[in-house]
């Protein structure tokens, strides 16, 4: 039986492990921090209680495993993440890891015989909330996409990802020397929706068709510092005006393509930032463009960068681009969607077929094996302290995750 109370207690316990800051009321647990280490230790203890043996791979992924009778079979893997954005919610990522552990605990408690091994992974650094490259790291490293320069990305204190991994007691070079790619037969992830769709339709569960791909990058606009009083408007080279037009342009392009295309600029660093001085440099970071169709996403990036060049030229400014990350979109496998839908119908639970606007570890695992995702209705948005999900909906999602997993674990 899926134990709702245990799930609820574990979500609460993880939410208490958070970096402290007077402005933050939400959960702040960035990758490879002391808080992340503490959360991993607690998660490891739950994995062990569920009868799994647990290890940390060189990229900081926490991996629990329970063997099946068929020793040579590739495992079914259930995963998500326990790191968070700054001042975020307590459900994003955690319900997928806690739910996966609950499935294995259920298998143990009911002495269910499984043929295929099952693994639960809490991936390291799913959120791009600490290092400058906005990277997803742990699950991406498993696909072999991570290169040495990704280890040199710094956080705001100048600590590199390599340094943070080493402080975690890991040897990051083993990512390259030993390789961390794992054999997997199938990957499942349960996650809160983080958007308004299920709530607006009054449906508790989403059966996911695909996950948006993502571009992540920066732009730097340069103009000329000058006197705000003595310089006529027509003789200025105001970098902030140029940057602002680029932001509006991204919104226009995103609307033009319509859902699921989305575009955001997260941050602008305006310099010199003094009163009485016309801004001469704007660093635009967290330029985040997503779509279910990779080509369309790249077209949006290209159109934005062309428009930025036109704006800069017209205003006597210069603009430079820094493309940091491109994550491919991923489709969920039809046989898993069918299995999930059949299980939901058995449970008499209403569900919605939908795509994921948010990105997930699942889209990297889709490069290694067949992938499926379950959404649990959430309210209050996400990546903010108002993020909510009801424990009853989380239980439904976990029950569906369990039934779906068991149909592949027993044969
Ligand atoms: O940004 C995302 O979609 C994920 O929550 N990191
Ligand atoms: Mn997130
Ligand atoms: Mn997440
Ligand atoms: Mn209840």
Automatic annotation (TrEMBL):
<dbReference type="Pfam" id="PF01546">
    <property type="entry name" value="Peptidase_M20"/>
</dbReference>
<keyword id="KW-0479">Metal-binding</keyword>
<protein>
    <submittedName>
        <fullName>M20 family metallo-hydrolase</fullName>
    </submittedName>
</protein>
<feature type="binding site">
    <location>
        <position position="127"/>
    </location>
    <ligand>
        <name>Zn(2+) 2</name>
    </ligand>
</feature>
<keyword id="KW-0378">Hydrolase</keyword>
<keyword id="KW-0862">Zinc</keyword>
<dbReference type="InterPro" id="IPR010158">
    <property type="entry name" value="Amidase_Cbmase"/>
</dbReference>
<feature type="binding site">
    <location>
        <position position="92"/>
    </location>
    <ligand>
        <name>Zn(2+) 2</name>
    </ligand>
</feature>
<feature type="binding site">
    <location>
        <position position="81"/>
    </location>
    <ligand>
        <name>Zn(2+) 1</name>
    </ligand>
</feature>
<feature type="binding site">
    <location>
        <position position="191"/>
    </location>
    <ligand>
        <name>Zn(2+) 1</name>
    </ligand>
</feature>
<feature type="binding site">
    <location>
        <position position="383"/>
    </location>
    <ligand>
        <name>Zn(2+) 2</name>
    </ligand>
</feature>
<keyword id="KW-0464">Manganese</keyword>
<dbReference type="GO" id="GO:0016813">
    <property type="term" value="F:hydrolase activity, acting on carbon-nitrogen (but not peptide) bonds, in linear amidines"/>
</dbReference>
<dbReference type="InterPro" id="IPR002933">
    <property type="entry name" value="Peptidase_M20"/>
</dbReference>
<feature type="binding site">
    <location>
        <position position="92"/>
    </location>
    <ligand>
        <name>Zn(2+) 1</name>
    </ligand>
</feature>
<comment type="subunit">
    <text>Homodimer.</text>
</comment>
<comment type="similarity">
    <text>Belongs to the peptidase M20 family.</text>
</comment>
<dbReference type="InterPro" id="IPR036264">
    <property type="entry name" value="Bact_exopeptidase_dim_dom"/>
</dbReference>
<dbReference type="GO" id="GO:0046872">
    <property type="term" value="F:metal ion binding"/>
</dbReference>
């Amino acid at each position: 039986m899926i134990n709702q109370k245990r799930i609820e207690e574990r979500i609460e316990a993880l939410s208490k492990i958070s970096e402290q800051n007077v402005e933050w009321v939400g959960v702040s647990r960035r990758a490879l921090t002391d808080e992340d280490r503490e959360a991993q230790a607690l998660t490891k203890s739950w994995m062990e209680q569920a009868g799994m043996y647990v290890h940390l791979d060189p990229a900081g992924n926490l991996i629990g495993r329970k063997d099946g009778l068929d020793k040579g079979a590739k495992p079914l893997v259930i995963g998500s993440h326990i790191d968070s954005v700054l001042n975020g919610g307590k459900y994003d990522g955690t319900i997928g890891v806690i739910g996966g552990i609950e499935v294995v605990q259920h298998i143990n408690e009911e002495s269910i015989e499984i043929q295929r091994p099952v693994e639960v992974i809490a991936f390291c650094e799913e959120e791009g909330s600490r290092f400058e490259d906005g990277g997803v790291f742990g699950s991406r490293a498993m696909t072999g996409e991570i290169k040495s320069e990704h280890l040199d990305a710094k956080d705001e204190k100048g600590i590199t990802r390599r340094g943070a991994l080493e402080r975690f007691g890991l040897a990051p070079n083993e990512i390259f020397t030993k390789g961390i790619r794992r054999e997997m037969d199938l990957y499942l992830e349960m996650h809160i929706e983080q958007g308004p769709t299920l709530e607006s339709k009054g449906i508790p569960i989403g059966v996911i068709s695909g996950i948006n791909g993502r571009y992540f990058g920066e732009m730097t606009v340069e103009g000329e510092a000058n006197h705000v009083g003595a310089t006529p408007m027509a003789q200025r080279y105001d970098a902030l005006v140029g940057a602002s037009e680029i932001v509006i342009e991204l919104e226009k392009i995103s609307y033009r393509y319509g859902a699921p295309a989305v575009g955001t600029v997260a941050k602008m660093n305006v310099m010199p930032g003094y009163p009485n001085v016309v801004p001469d440099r704007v660093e635009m970071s967290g330029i985040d463009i997503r779509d279910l169709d990779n080509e369309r996403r790249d077209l949006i990036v290209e159109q934005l960068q062309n428009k930025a060049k036109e704006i800069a030229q017209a205003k006597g400014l210069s603009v430079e681009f820094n493309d940091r990350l491109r994550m491919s979109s991923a489709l969920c496998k039809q046989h898993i969607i069918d299995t999930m839908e059949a299980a939901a119908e058995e449970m008499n639970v209403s569900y919605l077929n939908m795509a994921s606007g948010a990105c997930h570890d699942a889209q990297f695992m889709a490069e290694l094996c067949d992938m499926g995702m379950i959404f649990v209705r959430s309210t209050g948005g996400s990546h903010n302290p108002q993020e909510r999900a009801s424990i009853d909906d989380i239980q439904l999602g976990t029950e569906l995750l369990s039934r779906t997993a068991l149909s592949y674990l027993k044969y």
